[in-house]
Amino acid sequence: MILEIDTPEPSNPVQKILWENAIQIYSLDGFSVKEDKVTGLFERRLSQVEIDKVTPALVKEHIAQNSQAWKAKIGLADCLKIPLHLIIYEHDQDCYKMFRLLLAGQIIKIKLMDTLTCQGLAQYFGTLKGIKVTKGFVESDRLSNLDTCLRNYGVPWPGNLDGFFWDEKNKQCLGVIEFSRTRKNPVETHNINTYFHEDKNRWRPLLILQKNLDSELIIIIWKTKSRYIKIHRVQEMGASKLIFKEDWKQLPIKKIVDFYHWNAQQILMEKT
Predict the structure, then answer these.
(1) What is the end-to-end Cα distance of the chain in Å, rounded?
(2) Residue 21 lies in a domain
(3) pLDDT per residue over 135-150, tens digit each?
(4) Which of 10, 26, 62, 166 has the smallest count of CB within 10 Å of its CB?
(5) Is 117 helix (H, G, I), strand (E, B) or coil?
(6) DSSP E strands: which ranges in 118-271?
C-alpha cells in the first residue's frame, strides 16, 4: 500500500466485534478544539513513495479503497462547518503535504492546500488548539517521527476520535465513542473518575465535540483479555468528576452489538 495508516492508537476487542458485525463506527486520527468550538478534523498517512510524488490523483486512488468511511468523515466536517484535512508525510523527511477533502454530491474532491515543514505544521496546529495536553503518551515507543517532531515543538498531534456513528439515513451524528482501557483494575471495579484531574483535558475536547454535534458521548471501558466491558453515557463534566446519564456497570463484551442497536434507537427516540 502506497499510503499507510499511521496511528499510535491500538486496536481493541470491542472494535473488532463491531467491525465483524458490520457496525458502521468511523474514527478520526485527530480533531482540534479552541475555546468551545471544534476547529479542524484530521487524517494522516505515511507515504511509501517520495513525498514529491504524492498528488491528488494518488490520494484519490487511496480514498477509493474505502470511500464510505471517507464520506462519513467529510460529512462530519460538513456538520461542524470546518475542514477535513489529510496530512501525508514520508519517513525521515521534514516535508508534510496537507490536502483538503470535500464532497461534491457523491464525488470526493481532493485539493492540495500546502506543503509544510514540521515547524510550519506545528505552527498551523497551534492556531487551532486551545487545550494544552499535560499528560504524556503512555507508550511513547509507538510514536512516529511525525508525533515526535510535533511534540518537540510543543504542539502534539491533535487527540484522536475513537468512533462516531450516524443515524440510518446518514443525516445526523448520533454519538461519539471513547474507548478507555484499564490496565491496573478489573473492568467491573474500574472508576474513571478516580483519574479525573489528570484526564480532564482528555474529556474536555470530547465534550466540546459532542455539544457541537448535539450528539451523545459514550465511554466504553475495556481491558485486555477481559470478557466484560463497562459503558458510561456522559451527561456533563463537573468540577471534580464526569456526570453520567446512564451507567452500565458490567456487560459481556459479546453483547456490544445488541447494546449498539438498542442505544442508537434510544438516542433517536430522545431526539424526536
Answers:
(1) 44
(2) no
(3) 454 455 667 889 999 9
(4) 10
(5) coil
(6) 161-166, 173-181, 216-222, 228-237, 242-252
